[in-house]
């Protein structure tokens, strides 16, 4: 009989994500989705922005008859968040009493990184789903895709073809809390830099965002953005 030669092991397909001046993250791409091993998923809607260009609190702007904060709050539940939170400023008094509020630990407004830190600090889960209040086009399918690639102490972040990350519709591992807290404490407020480091250190995997899906991540900053969707 003809001897069987051992089959050569195929190298995994590497994603096309690239970032100028940033090395390819090690072991963060896989040829097929990985089964989720999230022990408990928490979720937070980031609604603490100043809404300067909108002229009023954008969280209360209605889309399809529902306030944006409620729309996003419902979505994170559908995505599997067992406990949900709303990240707001201390002076925002409108959230209902049955909604868990998390308030930034710092008195000044430091942007979304502070809301992520507050959410991770109060989260009961092994992972935290983060969703900005002003991104109502993000579909449930996006978070299903991210969950498939999460594993113990590792979350998933989206990245566009130009290398920019989408940090406000992502799943972060609880293990990132010390890193995020340190960045807030040091006033290193760039989420792009923080996430690049987290990818390098193995806390986050990268999920590529096809150009056709980039519209999902458009945020609404002024009244024209809202009226254009109606």
TrEMBL record:
GO terms for cellular component: cytoplasm. Residues 43-197 form the MobA-like NTP transferase domain. SUPFAM superfamilies: Nucleotide-diphospho-sugar transferases. Residues 7-23 have a biased composition (Basic residues). Its cofactor is Mg(2+). GO terms for molecular function: GTP binding; metal ion binding; molybdenum cofactor guanylyltransferase activity. InterPro entries: MobA-like_NTP_Trfase (IPR025877), Molybde_CF_guanTrfase (IPR013482), Nucleotide-diphossugar_trans (IPR029044). Its EC number is 2.7.7.77. HAMAP family: MobA. The N-terminal domain determines nucleotide recognition and specific binding, while the C-terminal domain determines the specific binding to the target protein. Belongs to the MobA family. Transfers a GMP moiety from GTP to Mo-molybdopterin (Mo-MPT) cofactor (Moco or molybdenum cofactor) to form Mo-molybdopterin guanine dinucleotide (Mo-MGD) cofactor. This is Probable molybdenum cofactor guanylyltransferase. It comes from Nibricoccus aquaticus. The gene is mobA.
């Amino acid at each position: 009989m003809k001897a069987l030669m051992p089959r050569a092991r195929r190298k995994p397909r590497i994603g096309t994500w690239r970032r100028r001046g940033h090395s390819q993250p090690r072991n963060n791409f896989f040829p097929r989705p990985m089964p989720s091993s999230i022990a408990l998923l928490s979720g937070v809607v980031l609604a603490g922005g100043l809404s300067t260009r909108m002229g009023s609190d954008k969280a209360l702007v209605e889309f399809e008859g529902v306030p944006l904060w409620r729309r996003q709050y419902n979505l994170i539940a559908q995505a599997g968040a067992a406990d949900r939170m709303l990240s707001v400023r201390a002076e925002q008094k409108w959230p209902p009493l049955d909604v868990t509020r998390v308030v930034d630990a710092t008195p000044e407004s430091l942007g979304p990184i502070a809301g992520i830190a507050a959410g991770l600090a109060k989260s009961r889960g092994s992972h935290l789903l983060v969703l900005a209040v002003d991104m109502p086009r993000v579909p449930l399918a996006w978070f299903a895709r991210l969950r498939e690639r999460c594993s113990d102490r590792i979350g998933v972040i989206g990245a566009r073809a130009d290398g920019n990350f989408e940090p406000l519709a992502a799943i972060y591992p609880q293990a990132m809390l010390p890193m995020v807290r340190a960045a807030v404490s040091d006033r290193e407020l760039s989420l792009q830099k923080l996430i690049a480091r987290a990818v390098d250190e193995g806390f986050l995997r990268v999920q590529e965002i096809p150009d056709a899906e980039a519209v999902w991540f458009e945020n609404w900053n002024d009244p024209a953005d809202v009226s254009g969707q109606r």
